[in-house]
Design goal:
Organism: Brevibacterium sandarakinum
Number of domains: 2
Mean pLDDT: 87
Shape: globular
Subunit structure: Homodimer.
Low-confidence stretches: 1-14, 225-231
CATH architecture of the largest domain: 3-Layer(aba) Sandwich
Largest sheet: 7 strands, mixed
Number of strands: 9
Order of helices and strands: HEHHEHEHEEEEHEEHH
Structural class: alpha/beta
Radius of gyration: 20 Å
CATH superfamily of the largest domain: NAD(P)-binding Rossmann-like Domain
GO cellular component, one term: cytoplasm
Bound molecules: nicotinamide-adenine-dinucleotide
Distance between the termini: 21 Å
CATH class of the largest domain: Alpha Beta
GO molecular function, one term: DNA binding
InterPro entries: CoA-bd, NAD(P)-bd_dom_sf, Rex_DNA-bd_C_dom, Tscrpt_rep_Rex, WH-like_DNA-bd_sf, WH_DNA-bd_sf
Number of helices: 8
CATH topology of the largest domain: Rossmann fold
Strand content: 15-25%
Protein backbone atom coordinates (compact mmCIF):
# COMPACT_ATOMS: atom_id res chain seq x y z
CA UNK A 1 0.00 0.00 0.00
CA UNK A 2 1.13 3.58 -0.55
CA UNK A 3 0.92 6.69 1.54
CA UNK A 4 -1.85 9.04 2.50
CA UNK A 5 -1.22 12.46 1.03
CA UNK A 6 -3.09 15.23 2.76
CA UNK A 7 -4.72 18.08 0.89
CA UNK A 8 -2.18 20.40 2.50
CA UNK A 9 0.75 18.40 1.30
CA UNK A 10 1.80 20.85 -1.39
CA UNK A 11 2.37 23.70 1.04
CA UNK A 12 5.89 25.00 0.52
CA UNK A 13 6.42 23.20 -2.78
CA UNK A 14 8.11 25.32 -5.41
CA UNK A 15 6.10 24.38 -8.48
CA UNK A 16 8.79 25.32 -10.98
CA UNK A 17 11.19 22.77 -9.46
CA UNK A 18 9.02 19.85 -10.51
CA UNK A 19 10.21 18.46 -13.87
CA UNK A 20 7.90 18.85 -16.84
CA UNK A 21 7.77 15.09 -17.44
CA UNK A 22 6.34 14.72 -13.92
CA UNK A 23 3.85 17.56 -14.46
CA UNK A 24 2.70 15.88 -17.67
CA UNK A 25 1.71 12.75 -15.72
CA UNK A 26 -0.22 14.54 -12.97
CA UNK A 27 -3.41 15.10 -15.04
CA UNK A 28 -3.46 11.35 -15.73
CA UNK A 29 -3.26 10.58 -12.00
CA UNK A 30 -5.96 13.16 -11.32
CA UNK A 31 -8.30 11.74 -13.91
CA UNK A 32 -7.69 8.21 -12.62
CA UNK A 33 -8.23 9.06 -8.98
CA UNK A 34 -11.36 11.10 -9.75
CA UNK A 35 -12.78 8.20 -11.74
CA UNK A 36 -12.09 5.85 -8.83
CA UNK A 37 -13.55 8.28 -6.28
CA UNK A 38 -16.70 8.60 -8.40
CA UNK A 39 -17.35 4.88 -7.87
CA UNK A 40 -17.45 5.46 -4.10
CA UNK A 41 -14.03 3.94 -3.38
CA UNK A 42 -12.27 6.06 -0.76
CA UNK A 43 -8.67 4.77 -0.86
CA UNK A 44 -6.40 3.19 -3.42
CA UNK A 45 -3.00 1.55 -3.27
CA UNK A 46 -0.09 3.00 -5.17
CA UNK A 47 0.13 -0.22 -7.18
CA UNK A 48 -3.49 -0.02 -8.30
CA UNK A 49 -3.30 3.69 -9.04
CA UNK A 50 -0.08 3.19 -11.00
CA UNK A 51 -1.53 0.33 -13.05
CA UNK A 52 -4.65 2.31 -13.89
CA UNK A 53 -2.53 5.33 -14.84
CA UNK A 54 -0.21 3.31 -17.07
CA UNK A 55 2.99 3.88 -15.08
CA UNK A 56 5.04 1.78 -12.69
CA UNK A 57 4.35 2.15 -8.97
CA UNK A 58 7.89 3.39 -8.33
CA UNK A 59 7.41 6.22 -10.85
CA UNK A 60 4.04 7.04 -9.33
CA UNK A 61 5.47 7.19 -5.82
CA UNK A 62 8.42 9.33 -6.98
CA UNK A 63 6.09 11.68 -8.86
CA UNK A 64 3.73 12.14 -5.93
CA UNK A 65 6.62 12.63 -3.51
CA UNK A 66 7.57 15.67 -5.62
CA UNK A 67 4.31 17.27 -4.58
CA UNK A 68 5.65 17.55 -1.07
CA UNK A 69 4.98 14.98 1.58
CA UNK A 70 4.89 11.30 2.18
CA UNK A 71 2.39 10.23 4.76
CA UNK A 72 1.12 7.20 6.59
CA UNK A 73 1.90 3.84 5.13
CA UNK A 74 -0.33 0.83 4.89
CA UNK A 75 -3.66 2.38 4.02
CA UNK A 76 -3.24 3.56 0.47
CA UNK A 77 -3.92 6.98 -0.90
CA UNK A 78 -7.07 8.75 0.12
CA UNK A 79 -8.77 9.37 -3.24
CA UNK A 80 -10.39 12.59 -2.08
CA UNK A 81 -7.23 14.04 -0.55
CA UNK A 82 -5.05 13.02 -3.46
CA UNK A 83 -7.48 14.48 -6.00
CA UNK A 84 -7.59 17.69 -4.00
CA UNK A 85 -3.79 17.84 -3.80
CA UNK A 86 -3.41 17.24 -7.53
CA UNK A 87 -6.09 19.80 -8.41
CA UNK A 88 -4.47 22.42 -6.19
CA UNK A 89 -1.02 21.66 -7.53
CA UNK A 90 -2.20 21.89 -11.13
CA UNK A 91 -4.01 25.15 -10.44
CA UNK A 92 -7.37 23.50 -11.02
CA UNK A 93 -8.78 24.27 -7.59
CA UNK A 94 -10.81 26.80 -9.53
CA UNK A 95 -12.04 26.16 -13.05
CA UNK A 96 -9.57 27.56 -15.57
CA UNK A 97 -11.17 29.62 -18.29
CA UNK A 98 -10.23 28.73 -21.85
CA UNK A 99 -10.86 30.58 -25.10
CA UNK A 100 -10.35 29.30 -28.62
CA UNK A 101 -8.97 31.65 -31.26
CA UNK A 102 -10.00 30.50 -34.72
CA UNK A 103 -13.47 29.10 -35.40
CA UNK A 104 -12.42 27.00 -38.38
CA UNK A 105 -12.43 23.21 -38.66
CA UNK A 106 -10.14 22.57 -35.69
CA UNK A 107 -11.46 25.35 -33.45
CA UNK A 108 -15.06 24.31 -34.13
CA UNK A 109 -14.38 20.69 -33.32
CA UNK A 110 -12.72 21.65 -30.03
CA UNK A 111 -15.48 24.11 -29.15
CA UNK A 112 -17.99 21.32 -29.58
CA UNK A 113 -16.08 18.95 -27.29
CA UNK A 114 -17.91 18.40 -24.02
CA UNK A 115 -14.97 16.83 -22.17
CA UNK A 116 -13.17 20.00 -21.02
CA UNK A 117 -15.63 20.81 -18.27
CA UNK A 118 -15.21 17.61 -16.31
CA UNK A 119 -11.43 18.18 -16.37
CA UNK A 120 -11.73 21.57 -14.61
CA UNK A 121 -11.55 23.65 -17.79
CA UNK A 122 -14.29 26.12 -18.59
CA UNK A 123 -14.57 26.92 -22.28
CA UNK A 124 -15.73 30.50 -22.18
CA UNK A 125 -15.35 32.01 -25.65
CA UNK A 126 -14.39 31.40 -29.26
CA UNK A 127 -13.00 34.21 -31.39
CA UNK A 128 -12.55 34.74 -35.10
CA UNK A 129 -12.03 37.62 -37.50
CA UNK A 130 -14.29 36.34 -40.29
CA UNK A 131 -17.50 38.34 -40.30
CA UNK A 132 -19.37 35.41 -41.79
CA UNK A 133 -18.55 33.36 -38.66
CA UNK A 134 -18.93 36.03 -35.98
CA UNK A 135 -22.32 35.59 -34.31
CA UNK A 136 -22.80 31.99 -35.40
CA UNK A 137 -23.02 29.44 -32.59
CA UNK A 138 -20.67 26.45 -32.19
CA UNK A 139 -21.71 24.02 -29.50
CA UNK A 140 -23.15 26.45 -26.98
CA UNK A 141 -20.80 29.35 -27.71
CA UNK A 142 -21.39 32.24 -30.07
CA UNK A 143 -18.35 33.16 -32.15
CA UNK A 144 -17.07 36.57 -31.05
CA UNK A 145 -14.97 39.14 -32.87
CA UNK A 146 -11.30 38.85 -31.88
CA UNK A 147 -11.30 42.59 -31.14
CA UNK A 148 -13.52 41.79 -28.14
CA UNK A 149 -10.84 39.67 -26.48
CA UNK A 150 -9.07 42.65 -24.88
CA UNK A 151 -12.26 43.78 -23.14
CA UNK A 152 -13.74 40.35 -22.47
CA UNK A 153 -15.76 40.58 -19.23
CA UNK A 154 -14.29 37.40 -17.77
CA UNK A 155 -10.58 36.69 -17.18
CA UNK A 156 -9.30 34.21 -19.76
CA UNK A 157 -6.52 32.00 -18.41
CA UNK A 158 -5.67 29.87 -21.42
CA UNK A 159 -6.04 30.05 -25.17
CA UNK A 160 -6.18 27.37 -27.84
CA UNK A 161 -4.65 28.88 -30.98
CA UNK A 162 -6.35 27.45 -34.08
CA UNK A 163 -5.68 30.07 -36.74
CA UNK A 164 -3.43 29.95 -39.81
CA UNK A 165 0.29 30.30 -39.06
CA UNK A 166 0.39 33.77 -40.60
CA UNK A 167 -2.25 35.04 -38.15
CA UNK A 168 -1.00 33.33 -35.00
CA UNK A 169 1.77 35.73 -33.82
CA UNK A 170 -0.49 38.78 -33.82
CA UNK A 171 -3.33 36.86 -32.20
CA UNK A 172 -0.90 35.62 -29.52
CA UNK A 173 0.07 39.19 -28.70
CA UNK A 174 -3.58 40.20 -28.41
CA UNK A 175 -4.09 37.29 -26.02
CA UNK A 176 -0.99 38.17 -23.99
CA UNK A 177 -2.07 41.81 -23.71
CA UNK A 178 -5.43 40.59 -22.43
CA UNK A 179 -3.68 38.72 -19.58
CA UNK A 180 -3.79 35.20 -20.96
CA UNK A 181 -1.11 33.05 -19.23
CA UNK A 182 -0.94 30.01 -21.48
CA UNK A 183 -1.35 29.24 -25.18
CA UNK A 184 -1.81 25.80 -26.69
CA UNK A 185 -0.60 26.50 -30.19
CA UNK A 186 -1.79 24.33 -33.06
CA UNK A 187 -0.59 26.76 -35.73
CA UNK A 188 2.60 25.52 -37.40
CA UNK A 189 4.73 28.45 -36.35
CA UNK A 190 6.87 29.35 -33.37
CA UNK A 191 5.14 31.96 -31.24
CA UNK A 192 7.36 34.66 -29.83
CA UNK A 193 5.16 35.33 -26.82
CA UNK A 194 6.14 37.50 -23.86
CA UNK A 195 7.66 35.86 -20.78
CA UNK A 196 4.33 36.09 -18.98
CA UNK A 197 2.82 33.54 -21.37
CA UNK A 198 3.69 29.86 -21.54
CA UNK A 199 3.34 28.42 -25.05
CA UNK A 200 2.92 24.71 -25.73
CA UNK A 201 3.14 23.60 -29.32
CA UNK A 202 0.95 20.77 -30.60
CA UNK A 203 2.00 19.05 -33.78
CA UNK A 204 0.12 15.85 -34.53
CA UNK A 205 2.18 15.18 -37.66
CA UNK A 206 5.40 15.21 -35.63
CA UNK A 207 3.81 12.85 -33.12
CA UNK A 208 2.87 10.51 -35.96
CA UNK A 209 6.39 10.74 -37.38
CA UNK A 210 7.83 9.71 -34.02
CA UNK A 211 5.33 6.86 -33.90
CA UNK A 212 6.35 5.93 -37.45
CA UNK A 213 9.94 5.67 -36.26
CA UNK A 214 8.98 3.25 -33.48
CA UNK A 215 6.63 1.27 -35.69
CA UNK A 216 9.45 0.82 -38.21
CA UNK A 217 11.69 -0.85 -35.62
CA UNK A 218 11.56 -4.55 -36.18
CA UNK A 219 14.01 -5.79 -33.58
CA UNK A 220 13.03 -3.95 -30.40
CA UNK A 221 9.80 -4.37 -28.48
CA UNK A 222 7.43 -1.45 -29.11
CA UNK A 223 6.64 -1.07 -25.41
CA UNK A 224 9.94 -1.57 -23.60
CA UNK A 225 8.42 -1.21 -20.15
CA UNK A 226 7.32 1.70 -18.07
CA UNK A 227 10.61 2.23 -16.27
CA UNK A 228 12.70 2.69 -19.39
CA UNK A 229 10.74 5.20 -21.37
CA UNK A 230 8.69 7.04 -18.79
CA UNK A 231 11.18 8.35 -16.27
N1 LIG B 1 -0.82 20.94 -34.85
C1 LIG B 1 -1.60 20.10 -35.47
O1 LIG B 1 -1.46 18.91 -35.31
C2 LIG B 1 -2.67 20.66 -36.34
C3 LIG B 1 -3.70 19.87 -36.82
C4 LIG B 1 -4.68 20.49 -37.59
C5 LIG B 1 -4.58 21.85 -37.87
N2 LIG B 1 -3.52 22.57 -37.40
C6 LIG B 1 -3.39 24.00 -37.61
O2 LIG B 1 -4.45 24.62 -36.90
C7 LIG B 1 -4.81 25.82 -37.56
C8 LIG B 1 -6.31 25.77 -37.87
O3 LIG B 1 -6.58 24.72 -38.78
P1 LIG B 1 -8.02 24.60 -39.44
O4 LIG B 1 -8.00 23.42 -40.29
O5 LIG B 1 -9.05 24.74 -38.36
O6 LIG B 1 -8.05 25.93 -40.35
P2 LIG B 1 -9.32 26.68 -40.90
O7 LIG B 1 -8.85 27.43 -42.10
O8 LIG B 1 -10.47 25.77 -41.02
O9 LIG B 1 -9.68 27.72 -39.73
C9 LIG B 1 -8.88 28.84 -39.41
C10 LIG B 1 -9.80 29.88 -38.76
O10 LIG B 1 -9.01 30.95 -38.28
C11 LIG B 1 -9.70 32.15 -38.58
N3 LIG B 1 -8.75 33.25 -38.53
C12 LIG B 1 -7.88 33.66 -39.48
N4 LIG B 1 -7.18 34.69 -39.01
C13 LIG B 1 -7.61 34.92 -37.73
C14 LIG B 1 -7.23 35.85 -36.72
N5 LIG B 1 -6.27 36.75 -36.90
N6 LIG B 1 -7.89 35.82 -35.54
C15 LIG B 1 -8.88 34.91 -35.33
N7 LIG B 1 -9.26 34.01 -36.25
C16 LIG B 1 -8.62 34.02 -37.44
C17 LIG B 1 -10.33 31.91 -39.92
O11 LIG B 1 -11.38 32.81 -40.19
C18 LIG B 1 -10.82 30.48 -39.75
O12 LIG B 1 -12.11 30.46 -39.18
C19 LIG B 1 -3.93 25.90 -38.80
O13 LIG B 1 -2.81 26.70 -38.49
C20 LIG B 1 -3.51 24.47 -39.04
O14 LIG B 1 -2.29 24.37 -39.72
C21 LIG B 1 -2.59 21.99 -36.64
Amino acid sequence: MGEILSANSIEGVVRKDVPERVISRLPIYLQTVETIAATGQSTISSEALAARSGVSSSILRKDLSQLGRSGRRGVGYSCEDLASTLRTFLGLDRARTVAIIGAGRLGSALADYAGFKRRGLSLTAIFDTDEAKIGTVIGTLPVSDLTELSTWPEDIDLVVMAVPASAAPAAAHIAADAGVRGILNFAPTVLDAPDSVRVHQVDLASELQVLAYYSALDSAPLNPGFEEHRN
